[in-house]
Design a protein that fits this description.
By secondary structure, the protein is of the alpha/beta class. Helix content is about 25%, strand content about 35%. It is globular and about 75 Å long.
């Protein structure tokens, strides 16, 4: 009987270091930074064909399943839509009601694997990394599978190509076979420049990639030995969880009690050579795959294709006398003149200009935006909802204009507003409108008016996206002016707009 290999994708981050493209409600794993796919989509695509790689490596009796994706509850519809776009319709999307770091997330996945399959191997991958050489990655995973079958808790260490001070390192211990794998000698914190150079020169240190491979049972034994409080809280949260449409929600009250800790601190640092063997044995497999954690604009520049002057660009960009820079433009012409080593990122509602050496400090800007209670830290101008999206076009005293796109077959909630009226003009597709006790169909160039206080709903019964222009007018236009009566997406009737 085959052992299942379950990809576990950690998709719970809400990163701020790639602002203004990454926002709290649209984090970097959902962005298309290096190609046509988002980082999440590229991560799940990375295991396509893995079974063939295992066979080529002589690994038998192992079959890859659809992934388990651990996501933040607030990102659930975006995650589901991106997985649908890849054709992956049977992924298990598990929702965390709040972040508790990576160790509890892996415990949730392990509980699922044990209950679904009895046991199985878990390939744990963050959703926001870049891997350029997928074939080499799959060969490394194949080497890791053999070790995991022997009971090792496996991590993957990136072969360093520079003296990097921004990553943690893994010191290799005793060699384990011809693949270059070794026992974990020790985990080492981020070094200073001189120490990083010594690590590079020694060729005995690897960057800590944050990717892992082990059996669910081996992980659960280890976490029980090192952090039984995490194991128990995660088990309770999973046991009390429930299915909700396309998702599995763990129990919020139980998960709130779970301590926050990383995989490294909770378990992996305790399986190095010389550690207590009742925890387990650790191994590291070297990776040379064009890896990056895309942890800053500088690190993204490093993995992007560049022109002869060292510039990486995307969008409508003109450069003159500019070198070793990254310029990304989303919505308008962006020109850069006479600057070197800069990051310029333009979005519809914010522009970042920074020296590359300051790229790690973007979080300071985001913190200031949050303290000012501005929306640019949380949302883009275009805001995604399970039914589609809306985008602010114009706003002034007592009015605002939005462009609303509703997916085929989707509908907004049945709702009412206390403080605003709405005018809807159809510019593309067909709209079914509920207004009080009446219902009507509107086609292109037709419009309707929703008076203040009237119950209404907008639906798209057609086969193409519905686009409307909405003009709101009233004394208060906040997104929280809503009373929701029905919602097909199972959303809380008081917390989410539209």
């Amino acid at each position: 009987m085959s052992m299942h290999l379950v990809p576990v994708v950690l998709c719970g981050g809400s990163g701020t270091r790639l602002w203004p493209m990454s926002r709290e409600h649209f984090p970097k794993q959902l962005l298309k930074l290096t190609g046509e796919d988002s980082l999440l989509q590229a991560t799940v695509d990375r295991v396509v064909g893995l079974n063939a790689s295992l066979t080529a490596a002589g690994v038998t009796g192992v079959a890859t399943t659809s992934p388990v994706v651990i996501a933040n509850e607030s990102h659930r519809f975006l995650v589901a839509e991106q997985l649908r776009q890849t054709g992956l319709l049977d992924a298990r999307i598990m929702l965390e009601p709040m972040g508790r770091n990576t160790a509890p997330a892996v415990c949730l996945a392990a509980e699922y694997v044990v209950r679904q399959f009895g046991d199985g191997l878990m390939l744990v991958m963050p959703a926001d990394h870049v891997v350029r050489d997928v074939a080499a990655f799959q060969r490394a995973v194949s080497a890791g599978v053999s070790l995991a079958q022997e009971g090792f808790l496996v991590t993957f260490g990136v072969i360093p190509n520079r003296a990097e001070t921004g990553y943690g390192y893994i010191r290799k211990g005793q060699a384990l076979g011809a693949s270059g794998a070794a026992r974990i000698g020790a985990f080492v914190e981020k070094p200073d420049a001189a120490t990083a150079q010594a690590y590079l020169d020694s060729k005995n240190y690897l960057w800590n990639s944050g990717m892992f491979l082990f059996s669910a049972s081996a992980w659960l034994r280890a976490i029980e030995a090192t952090r039984a409080d995490i194991a128990e809280a995660a088990r309770t949260a999973f046991s009390a969880g429930r299915a909700d449409i396309d998702f599995f929600r763990v129990d919020k009250a139980a998960f709130e009690t779970c301590p926050s800790d990383s995989i490294d601190y909770a378990v992996m640092e305790k399986v190095a050579e010389g550690a207590a063997r009742d925890v387990g044995q650790g191994a590291v497999v070297p990776l040379d795959v064009g890896w990056s954690d895309v942890g800053s604009w500088q690190s993204l520049w490093e993995v992007l294709d560049k022109d002869a002057a060292g510039n990486a660009v995307s969008g409508d960009v003109i450069l003159e006398n500019t070198r070793d820079s990254m310029v990304m433009s989303e919505s308008r012409l962006t020109a850069v003149l006479g600057l070197d080593h800069v990051i310029v990122v333009e979005t519809a509602d914010a522009v970042l200009v920074a020296h590359k050496d300051a790229a790690q400090e973007v979080k300071k800007i985001v913190d200031r935006i949050k303290r000012a209670k501005r929306d640019e830290a949380t949302n883009h101008r275009r805001v995604f909802r399970p039914w589609g999206s809306y985008e602010g076009v114009d706003a002034g005293e007592r009015f605002q204009v939005k462009r609303i796109v509703v997916k085929q077959g989707a509908s907004l909630s049945l709702q009412m507003h206390h403080h605003r009226a709405e005018h809807w003009i159809v510019v593309k597709g067909t709209a079914r409108v509920t207004r009080g006790n009446e219902q009507m169909l509107l086609s292109e160039n037709q419009s309707t008016y929703i008076p203040l206080g009237v119950v209404h709903r907008l639906e798209n019964p057609g086969s193409i996206p519905l686009e409307i222009i909405e003009v709101q007018s009233g004394s208060y236009l906040g997104e929280d002016d809503i009373v929701r009566f029905e919602d097909q997406y199972g959303r809380d009737t008081s917390l989410l707009p539209k």
